[in-house]
UniProtKB/TrEMBL annotation:
InterPro entries: HAD-like_hydrolase, HAD-like_sf, HAD_sf. It comes from Mucilaginibacter mallensis. It comes from the Bacteria. GO terms for molecular function: hydrolase activity. Keywords: Hydrolase, Magnesium. This is Putative hydrolase of the HAD superfamily. SUPFAM superfamilies: HAD-like.
Length: 205
């Protein structure tokens, strides 16, 4: 039986696309000036789906472009209401320990959490900030296990990224639930893979 659910935030609790254009406007303007058109379009999409530091590495940003972008990102805050996925709302009544483990800039992630009004949904909230620390999601999953005396079998990690939280949990032997509402992924290493949370309750028993 599962005793702990660990949720990702971006594209798991809510769709980043719903706020991305306005939130990242200043960053997009900089990138559009510095990148060719094809690269810019790819980067614009990837920035909403993975940590900026990873995007900068994939597309070999110059150090100046990376630092200028980071400076803008450090100052971003979300000041508009955010609507969570309808699927996420189904999970609010689950009688189980729930944790939020998200990666990104600390103040930006905190502002999203406040606008979503989900602070009280979780036993604890963890923000993995590559701009401040080398701690990873895998490290946090291990910390949660040890702090609350769970076994890995009693935990379930839920997220949208096969290469981030899903991969980290798999290495530790934690069951995974790949949430894929846009059906972006075919073959993955996730234990469970669905475009909704409809079957989540059955997995917990």
């Amino acid at each position: 039986m599962k005793k702990a659910l660990i949720f990702d935030l971006d594209n798991t609790v809510y769709p980043v696309a719903s706020i991305g254009a306005q939130l990242f406007e200043s960053v997009y303007a900089l990138l559009e000036q510095k990148l060719d058109s094809d690269t810019y379009k790819k980067v614009q999409e990837d920035v909403t789906r993975m940590p900026f530091q990873k995007v900068a590495k994939i597309y070999a940003f110059s150090e100046d472009l990376k630092q200028d972008s980071l400076q803008l990102l450090r100052g971003l805050r979300c000041d508009e209401a955010i609507e969570p996925y309808e699927d996420y709302l189904q999970t609010k009544d689950l009688k189980i320990d729930k944790f939020l483990v998200t990666i990104g800039f600390t103040e930006l992630q905190l502002s999203k959490i406040r606008q979503l009004q989900i602070e009280n949904d979780f036993k604890e909230i963890y923000i993995v900030d590559p701009d401040k620390s080398a701690i990873t999601k895998r490290d946090i999953f291990q910390q949660i296990k040890e702090k609350y005396n769970y076994t890995f079998d009693e935990m379930l990690v839920i997220g949208d990224d096969p290469e981030s939280e899903i991969a980290a949990a798999t290495v530790l032997g934690i069951d995974t639930y790949l949430y894929d509402p846009e059906k972006r992924h075919s073959a993955t290493n996730a234990v469970h893979h669905s475009d909704s949370f409809t079957g989540l309750k059955d997995i917990l028993n």
